[in-house]
Amino acid sequence: MDVHTVTAAAESFTCNAYLVPGERTTMVDVGTYHDVINAIRDHVETIDAVVLTHQHGDHVDRLSAVSGTFGPEIYAFADHPLRTRTIVDGDEVLIGDETFEVVHTPGHADDHVSFVSDETLFSGDVVVHDDGAFDDGSFGRTDLPGQSRETLVESIETLLDRMPDSVEHMYAGHGGEFHGDVRAIVERALERAARHEPKYPDK
């Protein structure tokens, strides 16, 4: 799978927005990067779909621009004015050339979903490889209103149950991508999240 982080040049805070060319050229989240349209056009002329892991502002800010420019189908778990396809837990979606299962993974956000194929995980903010709090397995923050560490822990457990052992590529909403033993990364994230200690104790 060919994956491009089209928000890599952003200087302001944004999620990682991923462009996945293929049979169904797809964006996973869109981020806040003001020049994301040109970043997309550096690789492809158009996109067929956008799939959203969740609707926090750093993941959907440029959705209107992307939708207005390319006219893609927009897949989201929760309601959104631009949504054209509703996704629910257990659905399958084609991202690039791979078929992914939708796994509802709330805790960081009620509408959070992850996308899992035989080889690849788009984990959004439920699990990340590195984020300044931990390396080699961290997890989304749960200290803001409407978030829940207990629910996040349950979601990571669900993700491990539903994720094949063959997954070796992980693309998270923040931090670096990871290639290797993804299950070990997710298990470390679960262990750390389950301690119920503050993620950023000095903040």
From TrEMBL:
SMART domains: Lactamase_B (SM00849). Keywords: Hydrolase, Metal-binding, Zinc. Residues 14-174 form the Metallo-beta-lactamase domain. Gene3D superfamilies: Ribonuclease Z/Hydroxyacylglutathione hydrolase-like. SUPFAM superfamilies: Metallo-hydrolase/oxidoreductase. Its cofactor is Zn(2+). The keyword Metal-binding applies. One of its GO terms (molecular function) is hydrolase activity. The keyword Phosphoprotein does not apply. CDD domains: metallo-hydrolase-like_MBL-fold (cd06262). This is MBL fold metallo-hydrolase. It comes from Halovivax cerinus.
